[in-house]
Amino acid sequence: MTSVISRRTLLAAAAAFGMLSVSVAPASAADTIKVGTFLAVTGPASFLGDPELKTLQMYVDKINDSGGVLGKKLELVHYDTAADPNKAVTFVKRLLDQDEVDVLLGGSASGETLAVMPMVEKAEIPYISFAGARKIVDPVQKWTFKTPHTDTMACQKIFEDMKKRGLTKIGMISGTDGFGASMQAECKAEAGKYGVNILVDETYGPKDTDMTAQLTKIKATAGVQAVLNPGFGQGPAIVTKNFKQLGLNVPLYQSHGVASKKFIELAGDAAEGVRLPAAALLVADKLPDSDPQKKVVTAYTAEFGAKYGAEAVSTFGGHAYDGLMLIVDAYKRAGSTDKAKVRDALEATKGYVGTGGVVTFSATDHMGLDLSAFRMLEIRHGDWTLVN
């Protein structure tokens, strides 16, 4: 097995070229199950891909140390996309044609996932995405599954909370990236169902560093009772800072696209009071013992935190954990490495308790989560708190 030191050396060297191919198991193909993955480990979405890759590496090693799967070691082969859809297409083609992987995990961002899906479906290989857009699983594609909650669900959870607070007139400012644009469209479609009226709708680009102009327009719009910011990466942190600087005295909602301590770190004191929907993983220690996810999320938090620090724990690493464990479970139930049998076993998953919720797939549902899997959180004193 490649040593820890050599893997880190490979990681550092490959980062300079924007790509990475790492093997964490013996090289003999007959003895391994090749797990191909492509993640945004560097670049503006690194807060997604970095914990995802670390999670996969940590648990692949753990599974291999326990004997592997079906008597075979897992071999992780990874490339860094920096969230660039074009790179994702190039690397997935390489994973399929040159590396000849048995299964695909990843796509940190929605744009790169959507870009590679036609290739995945043509190749007929089991694939689990870690990205949020509803379009990844609606309509259902035979070989593609996903672990995170959808942007549609995030809109629904947010509007549900707004309705409870009597907030019916809002402003929206969204990123133009794949995730931000998708959630913007979904929120527009869902708002009316909850009696929410979007009075003003602004956008910003992924490279923008100041959203004061857009937020000034929102502030000047009469009747705005709250602001919603669909987006991921550094953009939402900038929005949050500008929001406070302008003295906008209404509730600010973010999406599950910022569900990590990195967002709180970037936004600083301005994050106080921000609400967002997220997985139970962020509040593992605050869950009642009766919660079915408590055991899973506390174990993941403890293991990942012990290796990389408690501040590094995020729902994004949890998406990777769920993806890996779902595919391992499917291999065991299939009793085979045949791709079609593994896909069928994956689709037959019922009651898997993961970091994102309790998952039940079907022929018409390749995400397997309902709205109860989302928890509404509020940032207080630099930490997550559960909203009752």
Automatic annotation (TrEMBL):
Signal peptide: 1-29
PROSITE patterns: TAT
Residues in Leucine-binding protein domain copies: 32-367
SUPFAM superfamilies: Periplasmic binding protein-like I
GO BP term, pick one: amino acid transport
Top-rank lineage group of the source organism: Bacteria
Pfam families: Peripla_BP_6
Keywords from the UniProt entry: Amino-acid transport, Signal, Transport
Family recorded in the similarity comment: Belongs to the leucine-binding protein family.
Alphabetical list of PANTHER family matching this protein: BLR7848 PROTEIN, LEUCINE-SPECIFIC-BINDING PROTEIN
Name this polypeptide is given: Branched-chain amino acid transport system substrate-binding protein
Lineage: Bacteria, Pseudomonadati, Pseudomonadota, Alphaproteobacteria, Rhodospirillales
